[in-house]
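Escalation from tier 1.

The customer reports that the assembly of two entities below gives different C-alpha cells on two consecutive runs. Tier 1 could not reproduce it. I'm attaching the input and our single run for tier 2 to review.
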Amino acid sequence: MSTKAINPIVRARNLSKQFGATKALDAVNFEIEAGRIVGLIGPNGAGKTTALKAILGLTDFEGELSVLGFDPRTQRTQLMEQVCFIADVAVLPRWIRVSEAVEFVAGVHPRFSREKCNAFLAHTKIAPGMRVRELSKGMIVQLHLALVMAIDAKLLVLDEPTLGLDILYRKSFYESLLSDYFDEDKTIIVTTHQVEEVEHILTDLMFIRDGKIVLDATMDQVGERYAEVMVNPDKADAARALRPLNERQIFGKSIFLFDGADRTQLAQLGELHKPSIADLFVATMKGTYA
Amino acid sequence: MNTVWNDSTPIYRQLRDRVVAMILDGVIKQGDPLPSVRQVAGDFQINPITVSKAYQELVDENLVEKRRGLGMYVSDGARDALLKSERERFLHEEWPTLYARLGRLGLSLEQLIEAAKPGERQ
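Tier 1 run:
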C-alpha cells in the first residue's frame, strides 16, 4: 500500500519461501492495514496459499513477517486467538455432530460466542444433531462460517472459500460476511479465482505471479491508474502509440487497457471504462503458462 | 453479477444517484431511515467503505443527516431541494442539447405534446 500504516495488521519484508528449486515466494514486501478487505489474486502455483500459510504460521519462511505484531513462527498461540481461517479443503471431521463442533470451538477458543454461532446456524437448514458427513458441501461451508464468524477475531483469512459452491451459497456467503461479520476493526484477506464475485467487495487488490507481488493497490488507486478505451479502427494506431498494456478485439473495435495514461488524451480515442479485475488480471498475467 | 452497476462511473456515485432517485420518487420519505451500511454492503455485495462514501456525499449535500448512534435519515426538505437542483441541472445541462436537437429535427412544441399524449402513439 502506498500509504504506510503505523500499525499494519500484516507486514512482510523480504518474505521468501523455497520448495527445492522453485521460489514460491521471492522476497515479497507488503503491508495490510486494519479495516481492509484484501484480495490476493494469482494463477495456480503463484504463491497465494504459501503466503497465507506463512501468515497463519503453518509454514516456515525466510525474511520478516509480523501479523498483529506477532511472529507467526514463534508466537502462533497468541496469534491464533486473533486470527481465523477458512480453507478450500474441508477440515471439519466427517463424524462430528454440529453441536459437538460448536462445543469444541467454545471449549478451545476464548473469543468464541456460542450464542452468535447458534443464531447464525438458525438461519440455515443445519440442525444441531446432524453429522458433518450428512451435510452438503454448501452446508459445511455455512457451518464453518458460523463457527468462524462467532469468533471475535481481528484477522480473517479465506483461501478459496467458495470453491465448488453453487451461486446461491456463494452469494449468501459474502452477504453474511459483509452484513453480519465485517466492520472497520476487522481485516479480511481472501484468495479466489472467482474474481467477479469479490470485485466490489475488495478495498485492496494484490496480484501475485511467480512468487512476486506484481500489483499492490487500493481499489481507488486501481480505478485511477487503469483505464479501458474502446477505439474505432481509424484511431487504433494512435492508441497503440500510447503503449497500452493490452489490446483485444470486440465487434470490429479494439479495446485497449492503459496503465497510468493521461485521461484527457485517452478520451479523444474513445469511450473510457474502468477495467474489471478479470481483464486486468488477464493483461497482467499474459504469458504465465507459455 | 455486475448488471446493476455500469463501469464508467464509480459505484459510490451510482449508489448515491439511486438513493437520490428513491427520494425523488418518494420511495423513501423525509425523516425515513436509510438502510444501514452493513445492510447495503451485504445486499449489493460491495465493500462498506463504498457505501459510507455514498452516504457521506448525501450528508455533504444536506440530503441526509447522521443521527448519532441511530444511523442515517433523510433530511427535512430533501425532496424539495432535490427537485430544485434536478430542475436546474435539466435546464442548464440537458435542455440546451435537447433543444438544439429538436431544432435540427424541425419538431414543433405542438408535435411534441401530441406525441407525449397517452394512447395516441403510432
